[in-house]
Amino acid sequence: MNLQFVMDGTLAGAMIALGAIGVTLTYSVLQFSNFAHGELISIGAYITYLVAAAISATVIGSSEALAVFSFGWNVLLAGGVAMALTGFLAWGLDWLLFARLRAKGMAITLVMASFGASMALRAMLELVFSSRPLYYTQDLQIARAIGAGILVTPDQLLLVAITATLVGLLYVMWAHTALGRAMRAVSENPALAQVCGIDVPRVVRVTWYIGGALASAAGLLLGLLVQVRPQMGFEMLLPLFAAAILGGIGSVPGALCGGLIVGLSQAATVQFIGAEWRAGVAFVILLAVLLIRPNGLFGRRS
Amino acid sequence: MTKALLQMNDVVAGYEQGLPIVRGVSFTASGGEIVAILGPNGAGKSTFIKAVAGLLSVDAGTMVLTGHDITYMSAHLRARAGLAYVPQLHNVFATLTVLDHLKIGATLLPPAARKTQIEASLTLFPDLARQRHVLAGRLSGGQRQLLSIARAVLTQPAVLLLDEPSAGLSPRMVEQVFAQLVKIRAGGIAVVLVEQHVKATLAIADRAYVLVEGEVAYAGPAAALQNKNTLAALYLNHAHRPSATTGAP
Fold this sequence. Notes:
The complex is a heterodimer.
Chain A: H1 4-30, H2 37-58, H3 73-103, H4 107-129, E1 144-145, E2 151-152, H5 154-176, H6 178-188, H7 190-195, H8 200-225, H9 232-247, H10 252-272, H11 278-292
Antiparallel strand pairs in A: 1-2
Chain B: E1 4-13, E2 22-30, E3 34-38, H1 45-53, E4 58-65, E5 68-69, H2 75-81, E6 83-86, H3 98-106, H4 111-124, H5 126-129, H6 141-154, E7 159-163, H7 171-186, E8 190-194, H8 198-204, E9 207-212, E10 215-221, H9 228-236
Parallel strand pairs in B: 3-8, 3-9, 6-7, 7-8
Antiparallel strand pairs in B: 1-2, 1-4, 4-5, 9-10
Helix pairs in contact in B: 3-4, 3-6, 4-6, 6-7
């Protein structure tokens, strides 16, 4: 059996997991499904593109391919800058829109507002950049066989390593630091968290920041492996929510596992059944898991 | 007993603006005393304590904690200023361990003191020490109450507010919780206790307030309420309350 779907699914799962972690954090801390999260992925990818182009224009040789990879260090640096900027943008979106609606206590309005923000941000990207796809690099890479019939490019391996590092760092923060404890406390009981001395508004700001930064990282991965388009984040939205729900809302390891399951099932479907079934099979798995474990794989019971 | 650590003057509070539940309550609590807040159901005891903790906004009046005006301060800043609160329900984070709770409390302390205080707290509550890595959601009701108290006391507060800590506990566990409160009082903390268990509460309280319909019907020595008839008269007939301020500091 050709195991290529394992590599393809892991790559897709890594991108989905980075986005799903942002979705799960926002939902668990604010009890709010942010449908504009996909646009944070797109915006992160575009910021990376712009910053990489600016570095390339000012530092000669920065876009020269790094070792075995297809891109220069300008893209990696730009990815870091974009994570920081997209984090601030997510925080700003909350300050400008969601926090004001939250203060009025209207949950459904908040969700509808996130739909509105999603469409507005996507339209803005199309207006500024058009629908024409952009690429971080035009270099072609030759995939190498790593055994069991699996072909992989150095870019793909690096991106899996970047995802593993980011998720690992986030897990350490979530499970072992004061900030992580505060986030977990706020997600469970904001009123109790307040009387314990936790600055809940600060935790909310940090949550948005982290979610935005990880969305940007997902945008970088997607941009490197595929292309940069205004629709790229929106098209990820359903897999992101599927992964977050599958893993159990509020669980960082759950979002990672959910992302990998959705990515692997999509890739396996493409290889063994047909590309047209790709989205459908992932959601059948989601429904099956939820019927057996309504709180997802790692979710807590309500 | 020392000076008043918490002082409230004519506080009006409720869940909605213009619909006060607590109406013009004045109150003091000093270091090293247990002050009981008693009253019939619906008297406004829990509303009062939530207003002190900062979970409800105050419509009128002033609140002063260790000389600082906290009337319009947010709940988390009140906690940092030395006000610890143990709610009646949902008083622990079910998905966090016992140790996580103590670490959350310890963040209000200077970094150098945190580890020592956590260990001191576990010594004070040996039942929790044995379960330091257990999720709070797996503890019994009494153990959760003790954990919540341990987390609150760890912050070395000036004032500890407790909302019906005996609710739902077995008599043996109530005894254990109240014994801890007596120890905490000995440490110089002002303990403010909202309770329905009148007899057990009056046995450890130094002073008591009786709230009826959101107003103070009695303020004075707890011992003066030991007589069942006095308390019944206060609960049933607010209009016939005795002179309320005797014995207040």
